[in-house]
Design goal:
five-stranded mixed beta sheet, seven-stranded mixed beta sheet, 296 residues, WH-like_DNA-bd_sf, 15 strands, alpha/beta, elongated
């Protein structure tokens, strides 16, 4: 894919109708970790919900307000508190009076280079949703909606997906993306939690996924199976590489991601670290200073 051409052709600022109850507005914040940008979803008609308001950018705020002109924004749902997902909730709440609902607040610093957006310190929810909690909005016949929280830690510990009952659709935030596997960055990103959350989704019967980055996923179960297999493959690579002796993470990354742009190796290193922490918890590897080795 020609990313530069895709960015030039992207419908930034437009309101795209992607299903009978769902519209999307794309923020102009493309990057190696956001793909073409943050896709903010507008659910329903008349009385609407906004999912992942996005970065605090004037143009994106104007686009959301234009897309919802003449309607009432009643709820702002947030999947997690990275700065490409939640900051615009502050200004949208002030302008609309909507309730901010969804994930718990979370601001941490990590012990390595950031490989995606940092955490949003401005996020202040009116209501934190637990797994399985349901929020209704409007009457079904009038474009109403019913949204259920699905707790999916892994990318971050506070990550939620949101199920739209009326369309058997799942808004997957960064847990499942429409263009790449997600980054799992310790200390908050956790590979064991991520895998458990993938298995949770595998057991659901959602018809379609709407990720915050990338296109809709029309074969969600197939994609989730592929993601699980991919992570198991990476785990196997690590163990095989450690068969020949202790190694540092950059050495593992160079071997495992030889075909990947070296500029993305720091991000790959964070996911390798997440795998190693998980393997250590399962008594399969040991940390030895800057080196990692197979457990005896």
């Amino acid at each position: 894919m020609d990313i530069k051409a895709a960015i030039e052709a992207a419908p930034y600022g437009a309101s795209e109708r992607i299903s009978p109850r769902v519209r999307r507005v794309l923020a102009r914040n493309p990057s190696p970790f956001t793909f073409l940008g943050t896709g903010t979803y507008i659910v329903g008609s008349g009385k609407v919900a906004v999912i992942d308001p996005g970065p605090d950018e004037d143009a994106h705020l104007d686009a959301i307000l234009a897309a919802t002109a003449g309607e009432t924004i009643s709820h702002l749902f947030v999947t997690h508190t990275h700065r490409d997902h939640s900051p615009l909730a502050v200004r949208l709440k002030a302008l609309s009076g909507a309730d901010v609902v969804g994930c718990a607040p979370l601001v941490i610093s990590d012990d390595g280079p950031r490989t995606d957006a940092g955490f949003d310190s401005t996020y202040a929810p009116d209501r934190v949703l637990a797994h399985g909690e349901v929020v209704p909005g409007g009457a079904w016949a009038d474009g109403g909606w019913t949204i259920e929280a699905v707790h999916t830690p892994g990318h971050t510990s506070n990550h939620l997906c949101f199920a739209l009952h009326e369309e058997k659709a799942l808004f997957t935030g960064d847990h499942v993306m429409g263009w790449s596997t997600t980054v799992v960055t310790p200390p908050d990103g956790d590979m064991r939690d991520y895998m458990a959350s993938l298995k949770l989704l595998q057991g659901r019967d959602d018809r379609i996924y709407y990720p915050t980055h990338g296109d809709p996923v029309t074969e969600p179960q197939r994609l989730v199976r592929g993601y699980i297999a991919h992570r198991r493959q990476r785990e196997g690579q690590i163990l095989r590489l450690l068969d020949s002796g202790p190694k540092a993470i950059p050495t593992l990354v160079a071997a495992m991601y030889a075909a990947v742009d070296p500029q993305l190796h720091p991000a790959a290193g964070r996911s390798v670290l997440a795998h190693l922490i998980d393997l250590e918890a399962r008594s399969m590897v040991n940390a030895n200073g800057a080196l990692w080795e197979k457990a005896a």
